[in-house]
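>> received
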Amino acid sequence: MSIALVRNPGDGENFRYYKSVIEQVVSNAETGGAVTVMRLTVHPEDAPPLHSHSREDESFVVLSGRVRYWVGSPSLAECDVHEAEPGAYIFVPRFTPHTFQTITPAADVLVINNPGAIEGYFHAIGPADARSDTEHTDILGHYGTVLHDNPPPS
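>> returned
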């Protein structure tokens, strides 16, 4: 069952995903499956491959830094490219290929998925010294995520 809540930065549980520490601001369980919200500090080398989700819409809020987003094509070279500054909101509907990369040394970003089951993917991967998304296509597929192209070069 969903509950009303207020979470200040640092109030959520932290977990490891590859080399990153992610704050689980709001969990899928807390919202009855409606949404999951994660706070990330991302670096240029943390960019995910170009991918799409078949089960959820994804939103981003840039809290600090500047982030470049690629959207709309299964080819990185053919995507629309947008730069987002602090305060920017980005909406990516399900089935839309997308990726992002910070263009500052680091950026803080809220990632919001509706519905929220995709959080299980991040927890299933856990810590690792380097990204290896192509080794986890079985887990990605379980969560309805498809890889389309490489990540942007760092």
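>> Helices lie at 119-125, 137-142.
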